[in-house]
Every structure is written in C-alpha cells, then in structure tokens.
Amino acid sequence: MNQERLANKNNRRLLCLLFFLAVIGAWHLAVRVAAPSSLIFPGPGDVVMQLFSQINSGELSKHLGVTMYEIVAGFIIGSVLGFLLGVVVEEIEILELLVYPYIVAFQTMPKVAIAPLFIVWFGYGATSKVVITATIAFFPVLANTIVGLRSIPKEQVDLMVAYTASRWQVFKLARLPNALPYVFTGLDVGIVLAVIGAIVGEFVGAQSGLGYLILQKNFSMDTAGVFAILIVLSIIGLALHWIVRVVAKKVLFWVNMSSNTTGA
C-alpha cells in the first residue's frame, strides 16, 4: 500500500511538471504568433534573462531579504496573536459578544485603504509593513482556532469532567489537540496572505523590498523585470506553503497515522 501511495504521489508530481511545461510552451507560442511588444507582454525567455540579470547584479537579493523579513515577522506576530485571542474568546464567552464583531469589522476593511495610516504611524521602514502583514495573517488563525476549539464533541468534554478533569486539563488534553488541524489550516492561509500583506505595504510606501522594486520596474517600463519579480513572489508563496504543510505533518502525527490506518 505504501508503494502504491508513493507511485501515485510521483505520478501527481510528474503531471504537475508536465502542466507547467505546457503552460510555458503555450506562453512562448502565443508570444511568437501574436508578436506583441516586450513592453506589453514579454516572452518567457525575456523574463528568465531579466531574472538572472537581477540575481547577478545583487539587486534581487537586497530587496528579497527585506520582503522576507516583513513576511516572516508579520506572519509570526499575527499568528501568535490570532491563536491567543482565539483561545481567550473561546474560553470567555462574553468576549465573543464584545470583541469579535469589531475584529470582523476591522478585517473587512481593505488593507490598501488603511495601509497609509500604518505608514504615517510606523514610518516608511519595515515596521509598518510588518504591522500590515500581521493584521492580514491574524484573522485566518483567529477564526480557525475558535472553530477548532468548538469542534470537539460535547460528550468527550463531559466524560473528562465526570472523571474530575480540570478546565486546563480539558483544554490541554482534548480541546487543543482537536483544534490543531484547524489552526494549521489557518496558518496555511495566513502564510500566503502574509506575502500579499508585505507587498501591499511596500506598494503604499517603502524604500526597499520586492513591492518597491516592482514599482521601480513599472516606472522604467521594464515589464519583463516585473514578471521576473512576480515569479519570485510565487516561488516564495509556494515555499512557505510547503513549509507549513511539512510542519503540520510533523506536529499532527496522530492525524497522519489515522489516515494511513484508514487507507490500509
């Protein structure tokens, strides 16, 4: 059964690679047939050349480091705050009535609209981008934490209480393990949104970062350079998504064991 599962995984990877090559081929063919100006729509070859040019000049690594710091720092801060507040809201019911509606209202505000305020409050440096990123990554973790803590069967809690388990023991031994798959789902969403948050903040006001670099390439009409940076951002998002998935598999070992047993 394990060999069959491994073969299926390899087949999916091969299919994904073939689809990627097909997309690149279609892109190259469309550029060759339509022959648009490279200022409007560059071909894959032009984008790759620009990407290597930015890497060799050191321009990309300089701005990449700034953006990665904003993404990771904002994600960690937003995730920790989202998880802790989710636990508090679930444990203290009155807070859901008092606080949660305002959190939802704040989350519905377009971050592009309120980003200038963060720039005014925290400056043009990395701090304002970290705050913007944290506010975007915060809500998915908060919402999934609350849902996960509430998803535990009431009978399981009642049984533990009947055996004189304390509130902390119920949380540590039952509620938290049951909520962790939901929490990691929120983290998975949050890490992708963190990339968007950092770039939005850099668009509004920054002196460095990949978002700032995109604006500079736009001003100079370097469309191939913009495409190259977008590819880098896509790779960053995929890599961070993969890291969260790997950590989830390590932490949620009982879920993986359960699925393997079911498959067997």
Automatic annotation (TrEMBL):
Pfam families for this protein: BPD_transp_1 (PF00528)
One GO BP: transmembrane transport
Any single GO CC term annotated in Swiss-Prot or TrEMBL for this entry: plasma membrane
Subcellular location: Cell membrane
Signal peptide feature range: none
Entry similarity comment: Belongs to the binding-protein-dependent transport system permease family.
Stated name of the protein: NitT/TauT family transport system permease protein
Lineage, opening ranks: Bacteria, Pseudomonadati, Pseudomonadota, Betaproteobacteria, Burkholderiales
